[in-house]
Amino acid sequence: MNTSLKVPIPTLERLATYLRFLIDLEASHVETISSTDVERQTGINAAQFRKDLSYFGEFGKPGVGYNVAELQSRIARILEIDQLQPVIVIGAGNLGSALIGYPGLKEHKFEISAAFDSDPGKIGRVQGGLVVQDPSELRIENERIRARIAIICVPAGAAQTVANEAIAAGVRVILNFAPIILKVPDRITVRNVSFLQELAVLSYHLTTEQRK
Amino acid sequence: MNTSLKVPIPTLERLATYLRFLIDLEASHVETISSTDVERQTGINAAQFRKDLSYFGEFGKPGVGYNVAELQSRIARILEIDQLQPVIVIGAGNLGSALIGYPGLKEHKFEISAAFDSDPGKIGRVQGGLVVQDPSELRIENERIRARIAIICVPAGAAQTVANEAIAAGVRVILNFAPIILKVPDRITVRNVSFLQELAVLSYHLTTEQRK
DNA sequence: TAGATTGTTAATCGATTAACAATC
DNA sequence: TAGATTGTTAATCGATTAACAATC
Questions:
Q1: Which residues in chain B are closer than 8 Å to A21, comparing Cβ atoms?
Q2: Element (H, E) at B107
Q3: What is the distance in angstroms between the Cα of A173 and the nearest Cα belonging to chain B?
Q4: What is the tens place of the pLDDT at every residue in B125-163?
Q5: Which residues of chain A have pLDDT under 70?
Q6: For A9-78, which CATH class?
């Protein structure tokens, strides 16, 4: 095994893809799979797959392949998706509501434990079984919930402020949907999701015709 | 200028970030900006910024910097975000509805021109000014709309089928929210957005504590 | 044993960044 | 002219992939 501590981000992203794929395989009662099978079915290079796994140990049997159930549960453990993880959502607009109502999260052990919004018209309302709260409650609420993950779906103008509040409340990683670059301390990890960025890249591809 | 045709994907992603940033600068009446300013305010390396732009031409004046308004409009042109682009949304559940109702899209010249869903309970209903249609209408509808961009927000099980239908209807690039790897012809570009993948990567970061 | 497939090393490829001559 | 900053080349860094000995 590759004892180095530096796991490339692309490797982590693919790990999540493998996990999804393995869950589907298990549902279709496939017991064993080889790295070549993975390549055929996902398009991810077989050597890449093996290399990705090598950061975390040995998972297969030479000449045989990988046990689907075992690999699945070991990847889940690596990604800490084997135990329920509380998450807070800040911003209960269209997107926030969609996330709160998304059943896939719970299936992957992410549980939305609280929702916040500064709109007085939303505070106190119930969404997906949660009462929407004022962001000023964030700190006190999170003493109880102890969420380390926050999802930010507020407009760009409010994002930095709520990010600061979330961090003060003990959040350590942030999934940011606001189209803005958040300034955070080094110890905090942020991942940005931007529909507009995705669409912009696709839009460029339209101009150039071909490309794989 | 770097006449090579191969623009790295990360460069395109950053281009979208620059565009957003420049729009904000323009709103604050900043007229000129240097690559060092960009680094200070976005965290993106100054050389990187200059290199990214170099794929598309010359944009600045040595000793002076870049004209914000001009750079903004030229990047918009490169990404084809200077003219209204029709988009179809397939899947009008929580996420699909959120996208249909997202004003940021129109601001960036993406116009959702049709929405489809196979749920009979949704077909015929109006959402965000659009009548939800049966996916079997996709082909005929798109003869009129001529959208080349489709956003897929159906469950995993239905995603490949609707992708095929979208492609048959003339769609050339796909933004896929379904947690599945779509099989598409080489000429089609797909970008995947996966909340679960994002959360999984963040979840891993929690296990390792530090990291930037 | 022969065939298959792993885990890992080494080679390749591509993206980031530092350095600097050219230019305003 | 002196100072600032560009665009681009070259050096560095990191990720992908091919190759293969080890192993079932």
A1: 181
A2: helix B103-107
A3: 6
A4: 999 899 999 999 999 999 999 999 999 999 999 999 999
A5: 1-5, 209-212
A6: mainly alpha
